[in-house]
Design a protein that fits this description.
- By secondary structure, this protein is mainly α.
- It has a domain of 122 residues.
- Strands 1-2 form a two-stranded antiparallel ribbon. The chain has a two-stranded antiparallel sheet with strand order 3-6.
- The chain is elongated, with a radius of gyration of 33 Å.
Length: 190
């Protein structure tokens, strides 16, 4: 008798489960066909991105001398971004918006006066000459790396280095493939 009551309970549970499942199918939807469960097809592996074109590593280096190869006169864009021009203007007065941006990248204990001290850019090895004043230990000028990374890598689409040169580190930083050592491209403005 006990076995019969177990059968009755099992039948009642099956009927209840079937009724619940039937009521769970939204109206107008075909019922799920009976049969073996559908097999899961694993997703395809993602397509690898295109091989990166990194100046000086996987692509030609168009700016082997760093700063002075990028900072040129571009009449086609009405942009004279030669360092002699930029520093010359900043020796008179630094644009207030640019000065505010630069303050964020300067240590708080280094006062920025709104104009660059007098320096001669013509014939100078750039950026090697800049590092004389803009060293890591400087107490009178913002450290070069912090200043230049902030200027070149902050500002989104408004930043010409990001929008025109895609923020490529190797436009400035040069790898010696034989030793693995990094250096800065350097040269004299033409």
């Amino acid at each position: 008798m006990r076995a019969a009551s177990h059968v009755v309970v099992a039948v009642v549970l099956c009927i209840a489960a079937f009724s619940f499942a039937r009521d769970a199918i939204p109206e107008g939807q075909p019922p799920v066909p009976a049969g073996p469960p559908a097999q899961r097809v694993p997703p395809s592996p993602p397509t690898p991105p295109p091989f990166p074109q990194i100046a000086g590593l996987t692509a030609p280096d168009q700016f082997p001398r760093g700063c002075v190869d990028c900072h040129v006169n571009r009449p086609d864009l009405q942009m004279d971004v030669r360092l002699s021009t930029l520093v010359g203007h900043s020796q008179e007065e630094v644009d207030p918006a640019f000065l505010a941006k630069v303050r964020a990248f300067a240590p708080a204990d280094i006062p920025l006066k709104g104009k660059h001290p007098q320096v001669e850019v013509a014939g100078a090895e750039i950026p090697r000459s800049c590092l004389i004043c803009h060293s890591r230990a400087s107490t009178s000028a913002p450290p070069f790396a912090r200043l230049l990374h902030g200027i070149h890598l902050v500002g989104g689409e408004e930043n010409h280095f990001l929008s025109m040169f895609q923020g490529q580190c190797t436009h400035c930083h040069k790898l010696d493939r034989a030793t693995g050592a990094w250096s800065l491209g350097t040269g004299v403005e033409q």
